[in-house]
Amino acid sequence: MRPSEMDRASFVARFGGVFEHSPWVAEGAWDAGNQGGNLPDDADGLHAAMVAVLRAAGHDRKLALLNAHPDLAGRLALRGELTADSTAEQASAGLDRCTPEEFARFTELNDAYKARFGFPFILAVKGRSRADILEAFETRLSNGPEEEFATALAQVERITWLRLKDLLPKDIES
After folding, report:
1. Domain architecture of the chain: domains with CATH
2. What is the Cα–Cα distance from 97 to 38, expressed in whole angstroms?
3. Which residues belong to the active site?
4. Alpha-carbon separation of residue 166 from 30, 58, 74, 76, 105 (angstroms)
5. Which residues contact 51 (CB under 8 A, 6 or more apart)?
6. What residues contact 122, with CB distance under 8 A and at least 6 apart?
7. What is the mean pLDDT of the chain?
8. What is the C-alpha to C-alpha distance for residues 25 and 121, in angstroms, rounded to an integer?
9. pTM
10. Residue 73 pLDDT level (bands cut at 50, 70, 90)
11. How many CB atoms lie within 10 A of CB 61?
12. How far is CA 82 from CA 91, 162, 173, in A?
């Protein structure tokens, strides 16, 4: 079913998880789309509608959204407690196959990053190697807090665009 044909509950059920554990983004996009006439059915248009909700949110709500993301190659992954999307994304980058040394390095970087910035390191990992991810981690640790907050939000936008591109063709063809 096309997004523009969905009622609010169906829309939120289908797209509420696109922004990690933050269904309020989908709720806001549905509300704005229906007040404005309709919701877009394509990934780019729907993503723009959802990102507009995120960008209009206050700092605390954005910070809560960032904190809803799991650590890369972190403890939740080891316990099998990631969302299906996060599991697939991390596996695509080989994070489910870390050596003990790599896992230790990811743990060290995750802890340092959260201590410095107050939220987990977020990176769209699709198409990247473990080495690429570790390099990005180390580089971004030198960013200032405001720059890194903006970078993390930009990465969330990238992740969600990729997720919507995967979701929408299935919905539109049905």
Report:
1. 3-63 (1.10.3330.10), 69-163 (1.10.3330.10)
2. 43
3. 69
4. 19, 28, 24, 24, 31
5. 157, 160
6. 66, 69, 152, 155, 156, 159
7. 87
8. 20
9. 0.87
10. low
11. 14
12. 11, 17, 28
